[in-house]
Structures are given as structure tokens and as C-alpha cells.
Amino acid sequence: MDIQEYTRDTFDTKVFFTEYWRKKPLYVRGAAADFLGATWSVADFDAALACARAGGHNVLEREGEVTFIEDVSRFHEGLAAKTARFGALFGTPGTWFDTVRTHTPSGIGSHFDHSDNFVLQQQGTKEWRLASPGHIDRQDIARRMMEVPGVGAHPLPPEPEHQVCFTLEPGDLLYIPLMWLHSGVSHADSLSLSLVCPAVSLQTAVVPFLTQVLKHRMTGHQPIPAFHAGLSSEQREAVAAGLHKATRALIERMSDEAVLEAVTALQREHLTAADHQQAGGE
Q1: CA–CA distance, 64 with 101 (Å, rounded to integer)
Q2: What digits encode the pLDDT tens for the residues 196-223?
Q3: pLDDT tens, position by position, 143-182
Q4: What is the pLDDT of residue 250?
Q5: Would you tell me which of 76, 147, 186, 206 could form a disulfide with 102, CB atoms 3.0–4.6 Å apart?
Q6: CA 72 – CA 66 distance, rounded (Å)
Q7: pLDDT per residue as tens digits for the range 19-45
Q8: Do residues 102 and 164 share a domain?
Q9: Quick one: 179 and 211 in the same domain?
Q10: Which residue, among 161, 141, 159, has the nearest Cα to 151 in the 3D structure?
Q11: Integer Cα distance of 230 and 227 in angstroms
Q12: Strand residues in 124-161 grouped as ranges (E)
């Protein structure tokens, strides 16, 4: 693949959303500090690691090789303050930061994520290889979005023409789009920070709000008959048929226009807030 297609001299928000967001990777040399508005040091990493361990947080580690702290923003006030701003900018509620430090040539293996990721290289050098989601089975992508355990690890296609490769040095930025396969391997000592922007599945955007609306409207409040041991076979079948009929009626009521409007109102409130739109226009 032609590396120039994925490279720009600066990180321009308007250009990024038009040409790159959830379409293809972007590499910008020296853009990490401006993007983050700060830097991330070994001292910052060590302090966050101590807090994570003290709080019983699960730290992934191969001693002497690599240490990975998921959601490190929980343990660093400066990063925590930035998650809301980035979440608004990219329209991704629940945004967080991860960090990884390596001491030897190492990585965590090729995989794909149900999130958009911005890798901000702080120290050392790391080689990245990426490939499009076209190499992943569609059912695996669906399982990943539904957060099925054990889904995500996946080999890169062996053909070089199906991979795009980047060398990240201190200060560089790499955007990895949603579901793109990726593998990062450090040369030796390395420190990086990643902004994780989780995608929201349609089910997540509908079902919790639908449940909230139905509870508010007291739709489906009726107690169902108990399938107790005193029922005869005929009675049990009749009760099951009644439950089937009531279930159909409830599902039909869920598609009522008033219910739809109430659900979309909650979506607008929680997923498309005004501050998201304002941040995106900066």
C-alpha cells in the first residue's frame, strides 16, 4: 500500500473527519503533543502504575518485557480531564486512555478493536502493521461489537500488499480506525499512550433507552402467570399460548410512534449532546 495515502504533515480536524475517520489510518509525524495538549513521561506512567496496583486494578504484565494499563485515565487527573473533551470531539461516550511500556522488543499480538484508537508515541520506537477489516469474518466483527468474550485476536494477512506499515518515533501520532487489524512491536524501551474511542452498537443505543421508556410508561407491567406444578399439560400449554400472545402485543407496542419519539429523545440527550456538536466544529 502507498504510505502517502495515510500520511499528512498536520492533524487537521476538518480534513480528518472528511477523509480518515472510520475509513483509513492516518500517520502524522510529531503531532502527538499538540493533539494531547501534554506529554506522558515514565514518571507519569510509574505513578499511575502504583495507583492502579494499590487499587487492585488488573495490570497486564510480562515482567521485564511489557506492562499495559487499561483505562489509565482512572489514575491520572490530567488524562481524566481530557477524556470528556475527546469524547465530545469524536462523539464517543466513555472515551478513555490506555498506556503501554516495553523494555524489550515486544508487543501484544495482532488484533482488532471495537473502537477508534489514537496511538501517541512518547518514547522509543515502535513498528506498526495494519490491515483493513475486509480480512475479518463479518460474524467476528458482529461478535466484537457485542463484546463476546474471546473475540479480537486475529492474524494479519500474510501478503505485504495487504498491509500498511508505519514506524512511530517519539512524538508521532497514528490513528487506527474502528475494526482495523493492527500489531505494534517496539524496538526495545518504549512508552506510548493511546486514546480509545469506543464505538456504540445500535443495540446499546436503543435497548437501554427503550427499557427506560417502557418503565416510565409502565408498559408490560402485568404479572405473567406462574408455570406452577399444579398445572395440567393442557393448562400449561394454554398459559404458554397466552404468554406468547401477550409478548407479541408488547413487542408491537414497542414500535408505537410515541415510544420511538421518547427513545430518540433520550438518544439526543445522551448520544448527540450539543457540546459534542460544538467540539466537532472547533
Answers
A1: 10
A2: 999 999 999 999 999 999 999 999 999 9
A3: 999 999 999 999 999 999 999 999 999 999 999 999 999 9
A4: 96
A5: 186
A6: 15
A7: 999 999 999 999 999 999 999 999 999
A8: yes
A9: no
A10: 141
A11: 8
A12: 126-131
- Measured CA to CA in angstroms, residue 168 lies from 7, 12, 124, 125 at distances of 12, 19, 8, 6
pTM for the predicted model, two decimal places = 0.90
Q: Which of 162, 182, 199 is the last residue of a domain?
A: 199
Same domain (yes/no): 67, 162 = yes
d(CA 137, CA 204): 22
Last residue within a domain, chosen from 199, 222, 238 = 199
Rg (CA), the chain: 24
The CATH code of the domain that includes 156 is 2.60.120.650
Counting the structural domains of the chain, the total is 2
With a CB cutoff of 8 Å and minimum separation 6, the contacts of 155 are 110
Same domain, 70 and 12: yes
Model confidence pLDDT, tens digit, residues 250-281: 999 998 999 999 999 999 998 875 444 433 33
Q: Are residues 210 and 157 in the same domain?
A: no
Q: Are 175 and 110 in contact (CB under 8 A)?
A: no
The verdict on 171 and 67 lying in the same domain is yes
Q: Which of 63, 66, 138, 128 is nearest to 103 (CA)?
A: 66
Domain range for 165 is 3-199
- Collapsing DSSP to helix, strand or coil, 161 comes out as helix
User: Do both 87 and 212 map to the same domain?
Assistant: no
Distance between CA atoms of 180 and 171, rounded to whole angstroms? 22
Place of cell 508505519: 166
